[in-house]
Amino acid sequence: KAGVTQTPRYLIKTRGQQVTLSCSPISGHRSVSWYQQTPGQGLQFLFEYFSETQRNKGNFPGRFSGRQFSNSRSEMNVSTLELGDSALYLCASNLLAGGPDTQYFGPGTRLTVL
Amino acid sequence: AQTVTQSQPEMSVQEAETVTLSCTYDTSESDYYLFWYKQPPSRQMILVIRQEAYKQQNATENRFSVNFQKAAKSFSLKISDSQLGDAAMYFCALSNFGNEKLTFGTGTRLTIIP
Questions:
Q1: What are residue A66's DSSP bridge partners?
Q2: How close, in Å, is residue A54 to chain B by CA atoms?
Q3: CB contact under 8 A, B107 and A45
């Protein structure tokens, strides 16, 4: 089975722009979660989607949003980019919603905001 | 709120030797799951091992094993016969039953000395 894929792998944007990142989960996986990884804050949970519904949300401003499509693919959007949004954005999928299960991660999208 | 603490920012071990990485956690839930993930320079987050809190038996996966002390809220990872490919950042993570959100520690950078 193919693993979790994320596109694009690298992205450079300027302050004030918006960006959309995409995540395709492992085939059959229905839950998709997003994480932000920075040197200063470490790994932080952004949100989780299951059956096209956001079930859980981390402590991020409303500029960060996401959605999930009927085929379980997910996108996250960041509007009005700030320098502090520069980070590695990781997507993870798992088979079952509500656990117990393991999240499998994609390779990440490296976002640089200039 | 749940927390995960990794008190060793860096560790090193001679190739073929054994090393133990420490992790403590805090959660008010009785049903939860603990994970060790490995992040090599490629930045791909890879599951190393998983432990269900209700299981008394410590999980093992080939050269990797855990020492799970539920009362002490401790979850250490032992790597036996260390190999050069084990060099990576290791993250301890916690998720509560019914919640896909992973709470990560700050990581331990493991160096393997040839």
A1: A76
A2: 12
A3: no
- A76 versus A100: the higher-pLDDT residue is A76
CA angle B43, B47, A74 (to 5 degrees): 70
| Per-window interface: A 51-80 vs B, CB < 8 A | 55-56, 58
Euclidean distance between CA atoms A96 and A90, whole angstroms: 19
pLDDT (mean) for A52-81: 95
Sign, CA dihedral A92-A96-A98-A99, equals negative
- CA B39 – CA B52 distance, rounded (Å): 22
Tokens for A19?
């960006």
Mapped onto helix, strand or coil, the DSSP state of residue A113 is strand
- Judged by CB atoms closer than 8 Å, whether chains meet at A56 and B91 is answered as no
